[in-house]
Specification:
The chain is mostly helical. The chain has one domain (about 1-105). The chain is built from 4 helices and no strands. It is flat, with a radius of gyration of 15 Å.
Length: about 110
């Protein structure tokens, strides 16, 4: 259950980070509300997961999921670079996340 909460926290973290782009410095109401709600929800889910998982593992997975998810959405939504070095780097982060999950004893 803790890993599911952590996974959800990572997904909501992606929503939070992408909503930062759309809220234009908190000048747009709905994107700003999404930013505040998703930020709070992501932290709440992370805090709950940390009750059952090692904090280092949980935080690394949470930030890694956020980084990879936002980078992929940046490529798709904002036409950011998708060169081989960027994709290879994202692959390394994914390998790290999977490695942390596989080595967890919880």
């Amino acid at each position: 259950m803790a890993w599911l909460l952590l996974f959800l926290a990572g997904l909501v973290e992606i929503v939070f980070a992408i909503s930062l782009k759309y809220n234009e410095g908190f000048t747009r109401l709905i994107p700003s509300a999404i930013t505040l709600a998703s930020g709070g929800a992501s932290l709440f889910l992370l805090m709950t997961a940390i009750k059952f998982l090692p904090v280092g593992t949980a935080y690394a997975v949470w930030t890694g999921m956020g980084a990879v998810g936002v980078a992929i959405l940046g490529i798709v939504l904002f036409k950011e670079s998708a060169d081989i070095y960027r994709l290879a780097s994202l692959s390394l982060v994914i390998i790290g996340i999977v490695g942390l999950k596989l080595t967890d004893t919880n």
